[in-house]
Each structure stands twice: as C-alpha cells, then as structure tokens.
Amino acid sequence: MNGTGAPALHVGCAMWSLKAWQGRFLPHPATAEERLRAYAGWCNAVEGNTTFYATPARATVATWAQQTDPDFRFVAKLPKLITHERRLIGADAELRAFLDAVEPLGPRNHAVWLQLPSSFGPSDVPVLAAFLRGLPAGHRYAVEVRHRAFFDEQRSARLLEDVLTAANAEWVPFDTRVLFRSPPTSDAERETWTRKPRMPYRSRALTDQPIIRYLGRDDTAATVEGWQPWVETVTGWLREGRSPTVFIHTPDNADVPELCRRFHDEVRARVPELRPLPEPEPVEPLTLF
Questions:
Q1: pLDDT one-digit tens code per residue, 72-97
Q2: What's the CA gap between 26 and 89, in Å, rounded?
Q3: 59 near 91, Cβ under 8 Å?
Q4: Tens digit of pLDDT for each residue in 115-170?
Q5: Is 115 domain-assigned?
Q6: Can you give the residue range of the structural domain that contains 160?
Q7: Residue 84 lies in a domain
Q8: Is residue 44 part of a domain?
Q9: Cα–Cα nearest to 60, from 48, 72, 71
Q10: Does residue 273 fall inside a structural domain?
Q11: How many domains does the chain have?
Q12: pTM, entire model
C-alpha cells in the first residue's frame, strides 16, 4: 500500500544505473547518489541484484534510503552464499548480517527476495519451509524458483504454494516467454539466450503484494505486445485491492525506464484512480564538446 492506503503499482528495472541511460534518463557526469535520485524520478522500484554478490555496508544502504522517497521500493536479493552455496542451511550469521545491512531502508524494503537455483526442487521444499519459519517477522519475503517440476507438476506446485502461504511469502514468476518465442536478432539477445532460464507463465498471486519479473526483447513492439497479459493481470490485482510490483527487463535494458512508465500508463488507463509516477527531472543530453 502507498501512503494513502490505496492499492499501488510499483514499476522498476534490474538496476538504477546503466551507461546507455547517461544523458537520457540519468545526468552525466553524476555521482552514484545522483544516479539513484534521477532513476527514482523515472521508476518507483528497483531490483536489488547487487546484493546477490555481496552484502552491502549498512552505511551504503543508508545512502540509498536518503536518495529515495519513502514510497520507493527495493526488492533486495539474498546473497548467493545463502541461497546457492549454503542452500539455506547453516547461514544464520550471514542472514543476520544481511538483514542488519538493509534495515536502514525502512519502508522502502519491499521484500527480501530468495532466488533459488534451478537444482532446488520439490525434495528441497522442507528446507525452504524451515528457513522461512526461522525468518524474523519484520520483513516480507518473496521466493523465485526455477526447477521445472514446480511449474509442470501440480502436486509440486501445491507443495510450494502451501509452504509460501504459511509464511505469507510471495512466489515471484520470471516470464521469459517473449525472449524465447523466436530466435535472437541482436548480440544482446544472443547473450541473454545463454544466461536466462526458459520459464513457463505463472500469474497466481499468493499475497496482497505480488511481484512480477518480465523479460521482453530489444524490439519495443515485441516487448509491449508480450506484456499485455500482465497488464490485464495487474489491473485485476489492483481492483482486488492488491499492490503489485512489476520489473521490466530487456536484453540490452537500454529503454527500460521509459518502458516501465509505459507499462504503468497502460495499467493506469484501466485503473484511473492509480496514483501517477513522479515526473523525472530534465536531463541534459550528452554532447561531443
């Protein structure tokens, strides 16, 4: 929910800074703080992918909070040491360090995101259940799984849903169908084909704050066409009183801040009472002189 208590839609990218955005969405030159502040004028959420590689310093996270409004949302990914190397076992100290580091975000900390490896399957669900039971209640949690059994086998899907529902945790879908619908047509798409999983479509929300990850193409028309089912789903969620968060990706990510706003506009055309996104500050274009 936003500050008014009404359902809200948060949209964002996988990062808040990209070289291709300089002089277009972000000022150039700019400090790290100025880039985040400028990004927060385009989008009101961001994926915390950097925390997957290392827990940030608490002081660094405090600067993230200072550069964003209380309505801005971070979805911070648990470090891979916890999810991939320890596989949720024997990482209590690392977990405490991570939760302490992100504490300065306050209300901006939308959810702690557990992205589990593709080898983490139905037989591992009891481990996930025990891990979720041991988590402090002061945070929301969201889980992304990539083992095909959770999508192809109804029994496995129900098993996972029951565990997540008991913990009031969300199941995060990663919709990559559009990318793999036809062969890649650019270097960025070819590289993304080798790195991203081929994930089935899933649109069932378990909580009042569902999270979607959507991967399109470098072609804007294909990306927009591919997200139309999500526009309808998100519209329905908002009318049910849920507050979704949608992250838009493309292989090169060159246009995603603009695409996020377009997605928000498409939903707002169907839900006029939805609060508009902030207006971005004008950015001076890059020059040769």
A1: 999 999 999 999 999 999 999 999 99
A2: 40
A3: no
A4: 999 999 999 999 999 999 999 988 999 999 999 999 999 999 999 999 999 999 99
A5: yes
A6: 13-203
A7: yes
A8: yes
A9: 48
A10: no
A11: 1
A12: 0.95
